[in-house]
Amino acid sequence: MMRFAAQRVDLTDGGTRDRVPERVRTVVVGGGLAGCAAATVLAERGASVTVIEQNDYLGGRAGAWTEALPDGEPFEMERGFHAFFRQYYNLRSLLRRVDPALHNLIPLLDYPLLGPEGASESFTGLARLPPFNVAELVLRTPRLRLRDLARVNVRAALQMLSYDTETTWREFDASNARDYLDSLNFPRDARQMLFNVFAHSFFNPEEGMSAADMLMMFHFYFMGNPEGLVFDVLNEPFSLSLWRPLRRYLERHGVTFRMSTVAERIERDGARWRVRLVGDEEPLAAEAVVLAPDVPGLQRIVSQSPDLDDPHWRRQVQRLGVTLPFAVWRVFLDRPVRPDRHPFVGTTGLGFVDNISVYELFEGESRRWALRTGGSVVEVHAYAVDEAVSETEILGDFWLQLRDLYPETREARAVHERFLLRRDCPSFAPSTYQDRTTVPTPMNGIALAGDFVRLPFPTALMERAVASGFYAASHVLARWGVRPEPLWSVPPRGLVAGLRGLWS
Ligand SMILES: Cc1cc2nc3c(=O)[nH]c(=O)nc-3n(C[C@H](O)[C@H](O)[C@H](O)COP(=O)(O)OP(=O)(O)OC[C@H]3O[C@@H](n4cnc5c(N)ncnc54)[C@H](O)[C@@H]3O)c2cc1C
After folding, report:
1. Is 127's pLDDT higher than 80?
2. Which domain holds residue 175?
3. Is 75 part of any domain?
4. Using CA positions, which residue lies closest to atom 52 of ligand 1?
5. Which of 57, 139, 396, 445 is the least buried, fewest Cβ under 10 Å from its Cβ?
6. What is the pLDDT of residues 277-329, one digit of tens each?
């Protein structure tokens, strides 16, 4: 009988040494979660580490930097709201380096989902353990009547409870998430409230996302998650609660940061490597390199580095993709939203909007600003936005939906706002699984990390970034007999995966 609890995953055949026995120079390209996780393990095991980051701030897609409000007051701006789920075991282990009791994380007790015409779904008060939590959610949904349930395609639905790394990918990678969700036969309204938001939460459009990825995400977040449908948020901006403390921690372990610096090319130097930096004559020599940029960054580096010379691997890298753009709008309103609003709501069927957060309800800096000015700090996200849609259209729709959903904002003016439209999240297209790059590469001393890499256990987003960073560091250090960093996973198989044969 499978234990329904976090499990340790051993992927590296390292050794038992706590530290490298000799001087080992390493370079980490990319100062996001994946790169900083790798730098943490490399530095803690005694390697000398240089982190190269092209931005002047750490964190990449979870980064934060200082901006000034119109009155000159400094404010920490971020790339957007992030949910820290309880089953993010590896991310939590990274956070504990700088916040041992995880005081900086506070729970969001409910995160309702709002839809057209006042439709609303709540995740609060559900049983903690699957499948009871999901059964309860489905049964209390007003959009599902008993006769609708009788029409649900049970065979297809059972796939969500029987995730198995090998079989699920073999059977479902060629189909897209839309076809899979259609095959469940849920009534339109119930499908919209329970499922439509899901692919978007991974930035991918349903029709462009592998059904196997979708099933893996269902397993990781719902059916295979022993921690329940709960998440936490940081109670101060990412820069204050995570990036500055982590940078200090790493610098105390001897890590050098080269900020505003672009890694251009990797060259072979006998059994070692050289990392060439844009505008720098002198390359950095290293016994090992962890490449932890985003997909476009990795593709640029590889295309300029003929010495990363395995042809199959090069093709794999070039075939990685980014999904459609996402938009993040942070607006400082001159008046408050109603105090009983939720800190975070997901939305579906409301124009481009995918979620709305009210920052003063959970984050200290925004709370202080709101108290002082009587205003409100609101953030709106849209994922998988069609490329043809303009910034003006998206922004117009954000205002429209916000005013409609929270009527107290109808007269509100923006004291300050910041709008980001970016395209750097990985795509998980159908039929790409086998071809996705892994942490180990065919080149000795080169490892990959990031939320785009394929890991052999269910994981996603920030948690995958950190897990892959830990794994990449352990992998390159294995040749010095160094103890790997423990990796943790939700139960890797679904509750009834052993019975798949009965309905597959
Ligand atoms: C709006 C938004 C909301 C999100 N919400 C959530 C959420 O709620 N929960 C969740 O788990 N995840 C969420 N995510 C996803 C999460 O942010 C990412 O999965 C994670 O941050 C990826 O980390 P990474 O280190 O793999 O990549 P990145 O953060 O992209 O880091 C890569 C770094 O490499 C740098 N780089 C690239 N090329 C070079 C080069 N040549 N030289 C030097 N540096 C280079 C980049 O500047 C960047 O800093 C969200 C993402 C976005 C955009």
Report:
1. no
2. 121-230
3. no
4. 61
5. 139
6. 999 889 999 999 999 999 999 999 999 999 999 999 999 999 999 999 999 99
Comparison of pLDDT for 142 and 452, the residue scoring more: 452
pLDDT (0 to 100) of residue 1 = 46
How many domains is the chain built from?
2
Q: Are residues 137 and 226 in the same domain?
A: yes
pTM: 0.96
Q: Which residues contact 92 (CB under 8 A, 6 or more apart)?
A: 84, 102
CATH of the domain at 168: 1.10.405
| Residue entry with tokens 């117009």 | 396
Residue 367 domain-assigned? no
Among 177, 212, 230, the domain boundary falls at: 230
Q: Which residues line ligand 1 (CB under 6 A)?
A: 29-35, 52-55, 60-62, 79-80, 82-83, 262-263, 292-294, 297, 301, 326, 328, 381, 425, 450-451, 461-462, 465
Please write down the HEC assignment for all residues of 357-400.
EEHHHCCHHHHHHHHHHCCEEEEEEECCCCCCCCHHHHHHHHHH
> What does the DSSP 8-state code read for residue 226?
T
Proportion of the chain in helix, strand, coil states, percent, rounded to 5: 35, 20, 40
Establish if 429 belongs to a structural domain.
no
